[in-house]
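Reviewer 2 asked us to include a model.

Predict the structure of this chain.
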Amino acid sequence: MRKRIYEIIEVSTDNDRLSSVYDFFMMFTIIVSIIPLCTHSESVVFNIIDKVTVVIFIFDYLLRIATADIKLKRD
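Predicted model (structure tokens):
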């Protein structure tokens, strides 16, 4: 299970559709998280975007910590 999670969260290969979707989702999340920073304004929508993206980034970070030993063995 952890090995498959590692394969998904790392840069996708040509034939791994789920990894490609994950890469696209994370890139989209990064771009969306920048929008409130660019506007320099406070609103409820921007606060929600900020909180949701932080939770997504924390979840991604935890997945990367959980699979770090697999990455270290490969490099």
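The two ends are 20 Å apart (CA to CA). DSSP finds four helices and no strands in the chain. We have added this to the supplementary material.
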